[in-house]
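User: Please look over both lines:
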Amino acid sequence: MTIQAIAASSGVQPGTTAAGTAASAPAQSMDSNMFMSLLVTQLKNQDPSSPMDTNQMMSQTVQLSLMEKMTELAADAKESFSLQMRSAAAQIIGHNVSYALPDGTKGSGVASSVSFAAGTPTVAVGGVNVPLDSISGMTAATSPTPAPSPTA
């Protein structure tokens, strides 16, 4: 059987599509569906006289399981950190805070509200929206001293 080479007569450059736009990069991640598909294909096409080593197959299955669990653990840790940031930001309201913004602006004041619209919560301090990670200190709010009540 002779295999003939295919000539590139389409005029399409490597890395581009027929429309001339750049081709997208292939996905670099491997999920469990892709792994199972590869494993089934490997089992279908194996040589019957020398089948796949069962230890190797078990090793690959264990590696897949570990990868999936680590991915779940990373997602859980990220969600937990986000929840901790929201909780910490909410507890700042009503306290005196000092901050240093990335542009070098420093200030302080009472935290009046928190916004969770961005990835990092922002705290309103005296009309300035300060990212939570720019707050450098916090003290209890000073409450006005009540006037002494008249004694009879």
